[in-house]
Specification:
The protein is mostly helical. It is built from 25 helices and no strands. Helix 9 runs antiparallel to helix 10. The longest helix is centred in the N-terminal third of the chain and has 36 residues.
């Protein structure tokens, strides 16, 4: 049954990749792929049940008493226990995405990004590219790569009208967002996982992989720079932005920007203070923004049509639901593959047959461009314990597995940036793919090699720093 599940997964990805040729919306394919994988998993319940129960006991989502009560009724547990566990995780991501997209769309609809456009805009496309990349890189470290991608794509849509040129910038937004999220403990979900478990510390991950992450962004940006020519027309003025974007006074639009984007920046802090999932912080921001805009709109717009068009209840209808459903289908399908134990088997094989830390982490990063990096990193965390002084004394090789050790830092870098190789390999890529209608094939032709160049350039620098510079300077 594992072969059948992987076949459905691969065929689904193939159809998603060929969307521009088949003209079949990728969201529909992703949903069918996810459901198909879970149906096959249920059909093989007897085969997977014992291993699934054992894993559930190990990670603490199932008690010994509950496991005994299940006995041989594996299908029931897979439906009511395992699926609900995965669904809770998927729902957190989907709600986060929906909330963040609504906040960003609201801020953009009310002109909140105008001063950002003014600060970024330059008629020179090469200069604009570097401004966009640098802002994306550092903003992703403060927010997260998915939210940052949403913000930057919205800004780019109002800055660049030439679609072919804008797609080049969008491709670099994906690479820069993933690179910026990798070196921050709160910038990427995999880095958050490693940070929370204690594999890396805040200062350790920042100082350890900041330069490799920067190189990962700089190398492809340099290459793209040489392909940019001509000038970029000035962005639309307030009078020419269209009737669908109500115009507020500067004070009001800046207030909306402060509440919307400021709230998104506050999400990691909210999570650390309360322990609640990040999507709760996003929904808190959305609730505050909703109330603020209702009050502001009531004062700014007396015309009933303008009033209704400016409300968030109307703006929600403009959110791209196909992107959200595509994301849902992908995550559900990956969870089904993870439930088969395939990822753990892959991790064990790498450990036995490859062994070299640089190669293992590099392969994990490349694999994360196809398979979600969350279960890959989770598998790696389960395979290797965090070493302490006693473990290192008994076996010096374990020095690479202490907190902020070579293995964990490089894993954070590779898992965070490897997803840029394919547009479907990261949350940032999937979001940009939906927001700007980028095809899998276009990104594969135009940006995959650039992402690979930046990815391995960062790894090479990390190796040089740890193997050569440390040997010279101690």
């Amino acid at each position: 049954m594992t072969t059948a599940i992987i076949t459905v997964f691969v065929v689904g990805y193939l159809f998603i990749a060929l969307e521009s040729l088949t003209k079949i919306n990728k969201a529909g394919i992703a949903i069918l792929m996810g459901i198909g994988c879970w149906v096959l998993l249920l059909m093989g319940a007897a085969e997977y049940g014992p291993a699934i129960i054992e894993k559930a006991l190990k990670i603490g989502i199932l008690s010994e008493e509950a496991a005994q009560a299940i006995q041989q009724n594996y299908s029931s547990y897979i439906c009511r226990g395992l699926f609900q566990h995965y669904l809770a995780e998927v729902s957190e991501t989907i709600l986060f995405l929906m909330g963040a997209m609504t906040v960003v769309e609201t801020v953009d609809s009310h002109g909140g990004f105008r001063f950002v456009k003014s600060a970024l805009y330059t008629p020179n496309p090469k200069s604009l590219l570097w401004r966009v990349c640098i802002m994306t890189f550092f903003l992703s470290a403060v927010l997260d790569n998915m939210t940052t991608s949403i913000v930057m794509i919205m800004v780019l849509k109002s800055l660049i009208t030439d679609r072919e040129l804008r797609l080049k910038f969008a491709g670099m937004v994906i690479i820069a967002a993933n690179a910026g999220g990798a070196f921050s403990p709160i910038g990427d979900v995999t880095t958050i996982m490693l940070w929370i478990k204690g594999c890396v510390s805040t200062t350790g991950v920042i100082t350890g992989i900041f330069i490799p992450s920067l190189i990962c962004m700089v190398v492809p940006a340099l290459i793209v720079t040489f392909s940019l020519k001509g000038t970029i027309a000035a962005p639309a003025t307030e009078a020419s932005e269209g009737e669908d974007k109500p115009v507020f006074r500067n004070t009001m639009r800046n207030l909306i920007f402060a509440i919307g984007v400021g709230g998104l920046v506050f999400v990691p802090i909210f999570h650390n203070l309360t322990g609640l999932p990040p999507f709760m912080g996003v929904l808190l921001d959305l609730g505050l923004l909703w109330i603020a805009t209702e009050v502001i709109i009531g004062k700014e717009h007396k015309d009933q049509d303008e009033y209704e068009r400016a409300r968030i209840s109307s703006i929600i209808s403009r959110i791209d639901m196909s992107t959200i459903l595509f994301f849902l289908g992908i995550l559900v399908a990956v969870d089904a593959v993870a439930a088969t134990g395939t990822l753990e088997v892959l991790g064990e094989w790498l450990n036995v047959h490859v062994g070299n830390i640089y190669l293992v982490d590099s392969i994990v990063g490349v694999a994360s461009s196809v398979v979600d990096n969350v279960p890959l990193v989770a598998s790696a965390m389960g395979m290797y314990p965090i070493a302490d002084a006693a473990a290192v004394a008994a076996d010096p090789v374990m020095a690479s597995y202490v907190q902020d050790g070579l293995f964990w830092e490089l894993l954070a870098y590779c898992a965070g940036t490897g997803g840029s190789i394919l547009i479907i390999g990261s949350a940032a890529g999937v979001v940009v793919m939906g927001l700007d209608k980028i095809s899998f094939i276009w990104y594969l032709k135009k940006f995959s090699l650039l992402a690979i160049a930046g990815y391995f350039a960062g790894i090479i620098w990390y190796w040089f720093e740890k193997s050569v510079l440390v040997g010279i300077f101690g």
